[in-house]
Amino acid sequence: MSVYYDLFETPGIQNTGEPQPLYARLIPKSTIAQDEFIDRVHSFTSISHRLLQGTMKAFTDELCDSLTNGWAVEFGDLGYFTPSLKSHWVMTKKELRSASVSLLGLNFRLSELFFRELNGEISFERKPASKVPLTARMLSKEEGLKFIQEYLLKYPCINRAQCSHLAGRNRRQAIVELNVFIQEGSLMRHGVVRTVVCAVCRY
Question: Most exposed residue of 38, 98, 101, 175, measured as fewest CB within 10 angstroms of its CB?
């Protein structure tokens, strides 16, 4: 699936009112919350949800502790984090005291390895010129079921996270739609709670 972008006019610094050059800016489809992200990782690994949640918490706690103690942190193959600072403008070093320096945010520098991997996989598409929200242009229920059934011809079962990816649904929409397919008899439910998966009906 492509990543949407759109073109925006560069702000005119001098406010002349003349047309300004256009630049491309990413248009996110939505935000993947932490629980859904963990669901996605879990669906393609054998690592439990609880272990993934604990590991993510441990990573962020250690990241905070290391940054607090003045270190730049390499976060796996992803890249490097360093704190960014803010202070008022001064002409000499003596004019600025430590109390006037505060945290602005975090700088992130993408690693070359991750950049090459991401750049090799990602593709871009101009956002369609329509006022209809992106969610309204998702696959129809019938199209979504078709993609799921095609997936189940290759694999024995499908879970909620995989359904979200295939049919272009968020977490809530995928759960509701899978339940509808189960009630209609198009899919069969196996497992309970987080381990629920669905398989295509063979009868």
Answer: 98
